[in-house]
Amino acid sequence: MQHWFMNLERVALSVLLAATITYAHRNHVRPATPLPEPVEQVSLRSVSIEGDLPSGWTVGAAWQIERGGWWMGGFSGLEFDGENLVTLSDSGVVHRFTPPGPHAESLELRPLVLMPEPLSRDSEAILVDGDRLRIAFEGDHRVADYRADGALESDVRIANLFKRNRGVEALLAGDPAIAFGELGDVALSLENEPRELEVRGARYSVTGAARWPGSDQPLLLLRQFGLFGMRAFVAAADVGEDAVEVSELQPLPLGRFDNAEGLAVRAKAGGGYEVWVVTDDNRRAPLRSLLVRFDVAPDGWPEGLSSD
């Protein structure tokens, strides 16, 4: 009887989670006012992340970011720009901030509202390219370039290879950049004429992508959404002429209500790497906005990296 009630509870939680995500996907609403201040201070609460990790990985620090105005939460992308981290909310707001230290209790965000609205809603992935921002939009299959002041520079509708609200979820830097669809089975090489790539071995949704510094090797973030909630993975990948081969899926010990959607990597001065992950709370409980730093030893997974 106890086992039956546990299964019922899991089903109920799964239905709640699915309803939360569906509601948020249909309501990427951005009010006209109030606009965020040039600098927004938000509170951080340290959280515990425990469980199995890839070889040579440890949890350096993890925080829950408090909910704030409409420009807060819904974090769906993460990228390093020099020494700063840049994250993207699904309502079209880019936030720059200095990576917090392990004992930080607050975060100073510098928000940039993308214009025009409503074109900047449902923003899901970001690349920093010099003084430009490249943003991918999931719902209507677009990739757009913005100037440093948030003004739209170019807007390209890409081939409609993806299902509604299952469009581009991750961008991988490169020449050309690669756009991954959320279902994890197809990607686009963003050349002058975008070219379709088959994605093999992903198994789950591709929600984030980065390259290891000093190496051309990609690192992917994946999310499994199932009956009992969500699971997060990282994976190695190889980009070929016609396909992206995904391999060595490694679980990350995030919670079943942690919707991992952004990934960034940088080298550490003493060797090794920092891998940062951000989660999307869709502005609804029980999901939460987490910022997690994983420390990777020089000889950690995957093999063959060198941060010297």
TrEMBL record:
Protein name: Esterase-like activity of phytase family protein
Domain Phytase-like: 71-172
InterPro entries found in the cross-reference section: Phytase-like_dom
Highest taxon listed in the record's lineage: Bacteria
Pfam families: Phytase-like (PF13449)
Native organism: Sphingomicrobium sediminis
